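hey m, so remember when u said the tokens were messed up on ur end? i reran from scratch. heres the input so u can diff it against urs
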Amino acid sequence: MYFIGLFVMTIGIALSVKSNLGVSPVSSIPYTITCVWGIEMGKATILFHIVLVLIQILVLRKNFKPVQLLQILIGVVFGYFTTFCNYLVSFLPTPDNLGIRILMVLASTVFVAVGIFLYLPADLIPLAGEGCMQAVSTVTHIEFAKVKIGFDCTMVLVSAVTCLTVLHSLGSVGIGTIIAAVLVGTLVGIINRAFGRQRDRLLGKTDEPVATAEEAASNYVITISREFGSGGREIGKLLAKQLGYHYYDSELIRLAAEKSGYTPEYVEQNEQALKNPVLHDFFAWYAGPLEQTDLPKVDQLFQKESALIRELSRNGSCIIVGRLANYVLRDLPTAYHIFISADAASEATRVCARDHISPEAAAAKVKKVNHERAVHCKHFTKTDWGNVKNYDLCIKSDDFGVNETAQIIADLFKKKMKL
């Protein structure tokens, strides 16, 4: 699957070259070498991979691992695939019609996307371009998606300047470069959603472990999603005391920090909020599918916490507050999902008394935190926070007070689970 993916990618590269409308950013440097110096593109690709590995050696120094030299071997294979595919498309007539040329570019993005879909999850040796980006990300501690954007922009800029200076034309850069940059990541996402499970099954990759029938029968979980200032935490503690269940809230911060390697402060600040969501979505969209170690830190944190929540659900009956636990455990038959809300005035009053701030500051804080939780939920679950269809029970705590709300939940939970 790995080599088939590489080969399919080079078919896409060959089609973009044939269209003469510009190639994708990652192929722009090798094609520029071909246009300027006349070196066959497959050989130029091999030279480019060697240079990228040398850059990795300079960047990583003693942290460079000998196994990374295999990227040169893969570069040789990729180069010969490029030569062969360019030879294959040479039998196609060179189109003059702009519409046909754009169709060739679109077809090339499909081939590249399919190639990435097959090649990347096989998880063998990365291409030197990805290895170089990962090295820069590791050393600078800049998220991989941001490094990729900078890397691609730099390659396109260098290619454009070189071609303009020597050839007095854009050469390897054109509308096809923009189309590839915009569409490839999107197409990979579409293909991954449609066929990702079948591919992973073929590769022997399994999903997160689920509870066994025996565990599901003996362990019960109540997940509490709540608006800020609604008293959800106090209600969760009362439920845990009444039912004799473990209670997880702030304790999850410590456990998540131990699992992820992040500081407790970082976990607390980022586990239920998403800073700069528009930029985050842009970086995620552009970078396409990534290995877990290349994901933005907030995405890695969500995956770590999700695994931790599943583990806790298998270890014993418990109450879990926040952390999108209702989504993580949505398929667990013995889980009972609750959403607790309250009037904005009641929430602000509670926060004002608890945090010792003015009523105006408390109202602003309630609005801000609830918005952050809604954005966080939308990003990771693709559903609306507080959507009643995602819960077994939605209840307003200011209608009954904290104690009675906890008792109502306990009674309905026992009735639902026939306890």
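this time it looks ok to me. The beta strands are 221-226, 246-248, 318-321, 335-341, 393-396. if urs says something different then somethings off w ur setup not the seq
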